[in-house]
Amino acid sequence: MSYEYPIDETWSTEEIIDVVNFYSLVEKAYEKKVSREEILLLYRRFKQIVPSKSEEKKLFTAFADSSGYSCYHTVKKARDSADDFIKM
After folding, report:
1. What pLDDT, on a 0 to 100 scale, did the predictor assign at position 16?
2. What DSSP character marks residue 85?
3. Distance CA 16, CA 30 (A)
4. Family per UniProt (predicted)?
């Protein structure tokens, strides 16, 4: 991994850890299978930390630009899928 996760310095340590865990699971969804429930759970936590849709879009775009992985498409696939596991 040769890029940085987009985070906000005003977040608490716990919030930063939770957001990094979400980003990490999105990466894993592209590289392996992940639990769809876990994606949705970590996304709900992400939304507690980042309730603003515009801020979410900004962070997702920054993450996609640096990593090539789409948080939006991963969450959408998890929401739309009936399978227990998803792979991007």
Report:
1. 95
2. E
3. 22
4. Belongs to the UPF0223 family.
Q: Map out the domains of the chain with their CATH numbers.
A: 34-88 (1.10.220.80)
Integer Cα distance of 44 and 42 in angstroms: 5
What is the predicted pLDDT for the residue at 1? 56
The residue type at 22: F
Q: Which residues of 43-82 are buried (b: 16+ CB within 10 A; e: fewer)?
A: beebeebbeeeeebeebbeebbeebebbbeebbebbeeee
Taking the CB of residue 85, how many other CB atoms lie within 10 A of it? Answer: 15
pTM: 0.92
Q: Mind giving me the DSSP string for 10-40?
A: TS-HHHHHHHHHHHHHHHHHHHS-EEHHHHH
2-39 per-residue burial string, b: 16 or more CB within 10 A, e: under 16: eeebbeeeeeeeebeebbeebbebbbbbeeeebbbebb
